[in-house]
């Protein structure tokens, strides 16, 4: 979908026009009350479920979650997943030619490093613009994992009247210093690649493949757990013996190089840089809390005070990138405001990547929440009224 209205971003720069690519699944009902927005994570795209074509090797990235009879049931819900601006999967981003209407850069050449830095708040704003175009005033739910969960949280803050339910999975109210450090190592691996050419590699006919591979390898290590890597690879050797060199010897080395190589063929380096920056910048309290002396929790409490949806927060016991304690910060802030929130800490061995796995009780929690009656300010738009109040806070370890 094309937007010819200039979009001024949080960084104070303006895109004169932009495109958003999106996919939909299921049917929008006459009341337009069954729409579910899916927010993608860092390397995700608009292709969340099913296959584009017979040539597709794999279905969409959340195919185990979205579809007929699945947790997000497309026989009941109209599901929308868009590709965020700044991405390299169709929406306007660093690989997009600069339009003639732009006052910056050379029209016709790729934006490259001239593409402005994006924030989570910017993404949510463009998602709201897409909602307007689709005629969806209020989402039945906004759902996201990891970086997608940050977008869902931002939705509840910026547009409290436009969503009834908010599902935040394996996410955090803001990045820790350790997480920012991981992102910085990933960025430096790209920026220091001699083929990066100050971000103008497309014009130079080069590509920072090695930097992108290293960046993905660093990221991938943080998405897994020590136990998962031990179980999957142990200290197994490819050839069964030491080769006394720096080529691949251990199976885990082979796996990381394969994942990095694969990622480098499907992702854009400038996009990786700006998306990790968007993660670093994320702080839903910015713009809502002016008292800098407040603790993080107090600031979050104040920010979430005016939310009007009901929340489901999901974390995973082995996720050390966005540990359960980070999800509990959101839960605590909501509970302090007496907001309707359910929390599930799922026992899963897959680390941060758990949100992508088909874990029965995790899927059951999502299904149950999306199909439950709404208890908040929008309850008059739901056909079913609750027979009893839900628990304001449910914490359990699912096995």
Automatic annotation (TrEMBL):
> Which stretches make up the AB hydrolase-1 domain?
34-357
Q: Tell me its EC number(s), please.
A: 2.3.1.46
Q: Where is the composition biased (Polar residues)?
A: 92-106
Role: Transfers a succinyl group from succinyl-CoA to L-homoserine, forming succinyl-L-homoserine.
Q: Where is the active site?
A: 146 (nucleophile), 319, 352
Tell me, which GO biological process terms does this entry list? homoserine metabolic process; methionine biosynthetic process
Site (described: Important for acyl-CoA specificity): 321
The entry's family comment says: Belongs to the AB hydrolase superfamily. MetX family.
Q: Which domain of life is it from?
A: Bacteria
* Reactions catalysed, as given in the entry: L-homoserine + succinyl-CoA = O-succinyl-L-homoserine + CoA
CC per GO annotation: cytoplasm
Kindly give the SUPFAM superfamilies that the UniProt entry links to this protein: alpha/beta-Hydrolases
Q: Which keywords belong to this entry? A: Acyltransferase, Amino-acid biosynthesis, Cytoplasm, Methionine biosynthesis, Transferase
Q: Which residues bind substrate?
A: 216, 353
Functional pathway:
Amino-acid biosynthesis; L-methionine biosynthesis via de novo pathway; O-succinyl-L-homoserine from L-homoserine: step 1/1
Protein's name in the database: Homoserine O-succinyltransferase
Q: How does it assemble?
A: Homodimer.
Q: For the region Disordered, what residue ranges are annotated?
A: 92-111
Molecular function GO terms recorded = homoserine O-acetyltransferase activity; homoserine O-succinyltransferase activity
Subcellular location as annotated: Cytoplasm
């Amino acid at each position: 979908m094309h937007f010819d209205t200039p979009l001024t971003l949080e960084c104070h720069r303006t895109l004169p026009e932009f495109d958003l690519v999106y996919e939909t699944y299921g049917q929008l009902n006459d009341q337009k009350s069954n729409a579910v927005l899916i927010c993608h994570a860092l390397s995700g795209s608009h292709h969340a479920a099913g296959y584009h074509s017979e040539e597709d090797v794999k279905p969409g990235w959340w195919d185990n979650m979205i579809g007929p009879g699945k947790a997000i049931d497309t026989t009941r819900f109209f599901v929308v997943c868009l590709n965020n601006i700044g991405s390299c999967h169709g929406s306007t981003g660093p690989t997009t030619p600069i339009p003639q209407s732009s006052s910056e850069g050379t029209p016709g050449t790729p934006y490259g490093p001239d593409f402005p830095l994006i924030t989570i708040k910017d993404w949510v704003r463009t998602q709201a613009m897409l909602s307007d175009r689709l005629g969806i005033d209020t989402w039945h739910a906004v759902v996201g994992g990891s970086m997608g969960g940050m977008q869902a949280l931002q939705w509840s803050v910026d547009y409290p009247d436009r969503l009834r339910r908010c599902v935040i999975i394996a996410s955090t109210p803001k990045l820790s210093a350790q997480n920012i450090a991981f992102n910085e190592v990933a960025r430096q691996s790209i920026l220091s690649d001699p083929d990066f050419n100050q971000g103008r590699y497309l014009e130079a006919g080069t590509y920072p493949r090695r930097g992108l591979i290293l960046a993905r390898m660093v990221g991938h290590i943080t998405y897994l757990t020590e136990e998962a890597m031990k179980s999957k690879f142990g200290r197994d050797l490819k050839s069964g013996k030491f080769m006394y060199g720096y080529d691949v010897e251990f199976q885990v080395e082979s796996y990381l190089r394969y994942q990095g190589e694969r990622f480098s063929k499907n992702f854009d380096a400038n996009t990786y840089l700006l998306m990790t920056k968007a993660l670093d910048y994320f702080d839903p309290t910015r713009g809502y809390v002016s008292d800098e002396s407040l603790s993080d929790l107090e600031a979050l409490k104040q920010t979430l005070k005016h939310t009007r949806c009901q929340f489901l927060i999901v974390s995973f016991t082995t996720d050390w990138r966005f540990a359960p304690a980070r999800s509990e910060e959101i839960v605590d802030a909501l509970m302090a405001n007496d907001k309707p929130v359910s929390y599930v800490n799922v026992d899963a061995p897959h680390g941060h990547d758990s949100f992508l796995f088909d874990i029965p009780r995790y899927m059951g929690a999502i299904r149950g929440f999306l199909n439950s009656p709404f208890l908040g300010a929008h309850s008059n738009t739901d056909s079913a009224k609750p027979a009893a109040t839900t628990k304001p806070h449910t914490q359990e370890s699912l096995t």
